[in-house]
Amino acid sequence: MSYMAFKHLHLLAVVLTVLFFVVRSGGVLAGLQWVNRSWMRISHHMIDLVVLISALGLCYFLSQWPFYNSAWVTAKLVGLVGYMGFAAFALRRQKILGLAIAAVFLVYTAWVAVNKVPFPGF
């Protein structure tokens, strides 16, 4: 696969994971049971896996690795893991604060991806 193929795959997976997060969060807050069915959870996890694998492919093509030579890639990885962790916890436990923290991690990760700067304001 080429760099552009990995980039488009990554962007598609990011859009899908955000869409699934919004739908599942709204469904959990509304008390809908179908958002916690196994096919929804597994689909969300598989999309997140595609996000991570395509991110690794992009790291390979750009020769920028987290914790090694790229602070903004490290920040994206930390933001992505934070989002995934808080989203998984909040969607199972139906905690509004967890969903809000996951959303903050998601926005932060998107900001870092666009600006390629690990800390806002620097």
Describe this structure in words.
One of its GO terms (cellular component) is plasma membrane. The chain crosses the membrane at residues 12-35, 47-65, 71-89, 96-114. Keywords: Membrane, Transmembrane, Transmembrane helix. This protein has 122 residues and is mainly α. It has one domain (3-115). The chain has four helices and no strands. The chain is globular and about 45 Å long.
Please report the total strand number as a whole number.
0
What number of domains?
1
Radius of gyration using CA atoms only = 15 Å
Overall shape: it is globular
Distance between the termini: 34 Å
Number of helices: 4
Q: Quick one: biggest sheet?
A: none
* Overall mean confidence score, pLDDT: 88
Q: What fraction of residues sit in β-strands?
A: under 5%
Structural class: mainly alpha
Low-confidence residue ranges: none
What is the helix/strand order? HHHH
Roughly what percent helix? over 70%
GO cellular component, one term: plasma membrane
Pfam family, one: SirB
Transmembrane segments: 12-35, 47-65, 71-89, 96-114
Keywords: Membrane, Transmembrane, Transmembrane helix
